[in-house]
Amino acid sequence: QVQLVESGGGLVRAGGSLRLSCTSSSSTFSINTMAWYRQAPGKQRELVAAITSGGSTNYADSVKGRFALSRDNAKNTVYLQMNGLKPEDTAVYYCYSHVVVTTSLQNDYWGQGTQVTVSS
């Protein structure tokens, strides 16, 4: 069982910044795809940003140019730097990991979620 521990959420004014962190207990972290999703009240969970084992990233159109996802394999941690926050970024943010256990066994894990609230 892999544990994903998130931190960094909070309340910030529009235009402000936050950095979310997600630390994984996976022993194969360096080859796992990591991502952040978010879910606003009454809406479906949506992909915010993802990063592959090779460091390639992709972002939702709504956050391109404002958010940056990075990973530190030495610390088993990914970071989501969020700048220029808008009220519509308000949501619970979830860390996600696609874990490669073996070449024939892969599992998906989720963190418990961290609240991000952006006031206008």
Structure report:
- The chain contains no helices and eleven strands.
- It has 120 residues and is mainly beta.
- Strands 2, 4, 5, 6, 9, 10 and 11 form a seven-stranded mixed sheet that branches.
- The protein is elongated, with a radius of gyration of 14 Å.
Task: Give me some keywords for this one.
4-stranded antiparallel sheet; 0% helix; 120 residues; mainly beta; elongated; single chain; 7-stranded mixed sheet; 11 strands; 56% strand
Residues in β-strands, percent: over 45%
Query: Which structural class best describes the helix and strand composition?
Result: mainly beta
Mass-distribution shape: elongated
**Number of helix segments?**
0
Main β-sheet, in a few words?
Answer: 7 strands, mixed
Helix content: under 10%
The rounded Rg comes to 14 Å
Query: Quaternary status of these chains?
Result: single chain
Mean pLDDT: 96
| Distance linking N and C termini | 40 Å
| SS elements, strand count | 11
Order of helices and strands: EEEEEEEEEEE
Low-confidence stretches: none
Set down the secondary structure blueprint.
Layout: E1 4-7, E2 10-13, E3 18-24, E4 33-39, E5 46-51, E6 57-59, E7 67-72, E8 77-82, E9 91-102, E10 105-110, E11 114-119
Parallel strand pairs: 2-11
Antiparallel strand pairs: 1-3, 3-8, 4-5, 4-9, 5-6, 7-8, 9-10, 9-11
Quick structural gist:
With 120 residues, the chain is mostly beta strands. It has strands at 4-7, 10-13, 18-24, 33-39, 46-51, 57-59, 67-72, 77-82, 91-102, 105-110, 114-119.
